[in-house]
Amino acid sequence: xxxxHIVIVPSWWPSPEQPYRGIFFTDYARAFAAAGAKVGVxxxxxxxxxxxGSGTTIPLWPKITEEALDxxxxxxxxxxxxxxxxxxxxxHRFRGWLRRGLTVYRTRYGTPDLLHAMCAxxxxxxxxxxxxxxxxxVVVTELTGPFSLVMTRRAxxxxxxxxxxxxxxxVAVSEQSRTEMxxxxxxxxxxxxxxxxxxxxxxxEPVKKRSDRILRALFVGRLTEAKGVDxxxxxxxxxxxxxxxxxxxxxxxxxxxxxxxxFIAAGLHERLTLHGVCDRHAVVDLxxxxxxxxxxxxxxxxxxxxxxxxxxGLPVVATHGTACADFISKDNGKLVRKRxxxxxTEGLRQLIRDRDSYNPEAxxxxxxxxxxxxxxxxWYEGLFRRIVGME
Length: 391
What we know:
The protein folds into 2 domains: 5-196 and 372-388, Glycogen Phosphorylase B (Rossmann fold); 200-370, 3-Layer(aba) Sandwich (Rossmann fold). Helix 7 packs across helix 11 (341-353). Helix 3 links the parallel strand 5 and strand 6. Helices cover 37% and strands 20% of the residues. An 8-stranded mixed sheet has the order 3-4-2-1-5-6-7-8, with helices on both faces. Strands 11-10-9-12-13-14 form a 6-stranded parallel sheet, with helices on both faces. It is α/β, with parallel strands linked by helices.
């Protein structure tokens, strides 16, 4: 990517109130910079009123600050905001703050070759709808899952459509995501490139086969019905008489009390650990001490937890009809039917029975070669150079 100057405009970015929100976007910035590009970030940080009282300082009026991400400049425009449930307020304010941030960025670091907007709204629409030549050189990468979440009047469906229509290129993170976008009526060309894993994970050693008679099962994700948590708890209860399993859940969500109640009711409370939200290093550590990961989601657009587990050498149980299905084979896990406790229970049973046949080193090597930052940067380099005429 040498010679390219890219400014990433994320729809979300880690903040004092939400330190893990948009964390995958930071991996794009690091990957592009490591590949030789000049990279910057401009983030309009519209802080919701519900964050008041969080213990952090939130300016009443937008304030521009500069931060650094491993040497990458990050211009943040931060202040309190409410859209009053009107998408146009959100979009136009994001665009106004973006314009201010780009002015500061260009004064300090020069004009970039293109803008890389992370998600169609608000970043994609804002980048393609302001009076500047850069609006014609915008790549939008869509990571919203499921895509139907943004295709409603309340979310701002008209802004999604116009933002994607004006972009120089649109990228989905999986075939599943592209299918969802096409089904929703996005008629333009959509390319596909997955997400890369973090350097923290790549620096870790793949798991070793454990000899402990008590197996460790890991779930990473939002504790919601859509992630298949209800089916997973029921399957765990069914498997209890057959295997000694310790269940570890990473994440938070509305189903946390139900998980705890059902494990207690089944007399399995000593087999359950709810870790809450963990940083990446903690997740990697948990993966290194687990035997397998299970994500019985009803609809994954990508499935980062699955990819990270595979990169650590863990076999995975995931569901048909999601993006995760593209990553799973007989050599690294099992696929089960969505919303089906019987299928999930049997899939877990088969994976446990076959666990000695899995090769952690081979699983990790295959996944890391597919989802490394270098692979991501190489793919985007070709796209970026075509757009700016540097082929």
